[in-house]
């Protein structure tokens, strides 16, 4: 279930923690297997992470369902993680999310018909001064407008 390459990556993270504390690498392990699985987790993968890190499955599920980093349904090739917390909301995130939904013909949490994009509402990403903002992959996009979103979507194609 967990590839040899993913195990190597997980082992690297486990080695950063004291002996016997490998379960501390659970977030990295979930991130690695999620990425390898096309961007989402499932029950088998969470169980495999629990087995590999020798920790209770329920503890892995608690982490995987608490943090918004993890997806439990298939996602698009690119996930637009749109902050809708207070600073971003006051600066128009709700309107921009609606704009995206209309333009992509999807609702938040769904994947566009071409499989390219999914939109996810998330809580504060720590870039409040740049709101409204979103994260795509490792990149933050700040001070968003409809024009900027159009350009971002074009670039994703
Ligand atoms: S409120 Fe949006 S980044 Fe903090």
UniProtKB/TrEMBL annotation:
GO terms for molecular function: 2 iron, 2 sulfur cluster binding; metal ion binding; NADH dehydrogenase activity. Its cofactor is [2Fe-2S] cluster. CDD domains: TRX_Fd_NuoE. Keywords: 2Fe-2S, Iron, Iron-sulfur, Metal-binding. [2Fe-2S] cluster binds at residues 83, 88, 124, 128. It catalyses: a quinone + NADH + 5 H(+)(in) = a quinol + NAD(+) + 4 H(+)(out). Coiled coil: none annotated. Binds 1 [2Fe-2S] cluster. Signal peptide: none annotated. SUPFAM superfamilies: Thioredoxin-like. NCBIfam families: nuoE_fam. PANTHER family: NADH DEHYDROGENASE [UBIQUINONE] FLAVOPROTEIN 2, MITOCHONDRIAL (PTHR10371:SF3), NADH DEHYDROGENASE UBIQUINONE FLAVOPROTEIN 2, MITOCHONDRIAL (PTHR10371). Belongs to the complex I 24 kDa subunit family. This is NADH-quinone oxidoreductase subunit E. It comes from Candidatus Pseudothioglobus singularis PS1.
């Amino acid at each position: 279930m967990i590839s040899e390459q993913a195990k190597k990556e997980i082992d690297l993270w486990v080695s950063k923690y004291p002996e016997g504390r490998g379960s501390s690498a659970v977030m990295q392990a979930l991130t690695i297997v999620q990425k390898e699985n096309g961007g989402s987790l499932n029950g088998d993968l969470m169980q495999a992470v629990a087995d590999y890190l020798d920790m209770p499955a329920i503890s892995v599920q608690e982490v995987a369902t608490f943090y918004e980093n993890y997806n439990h349904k298939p996602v698009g090739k690119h996930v637009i993680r749109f902050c809708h917390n207070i600073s971003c909301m006051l600066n128009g995130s709700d309107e921009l999310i609606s704009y995206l939904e209309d333009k992509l013909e999807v609702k938040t949490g769904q994947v566009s018909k071409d499989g390219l994009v999914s939109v996810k509402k998330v809580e504060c990403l720590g870039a409040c001064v740049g709101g409204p903002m979103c994260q795509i992959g490792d990149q933050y996009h700040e001070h968003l407008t409809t024009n900027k979103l159009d350009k971002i979507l074009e670039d994703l194609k």
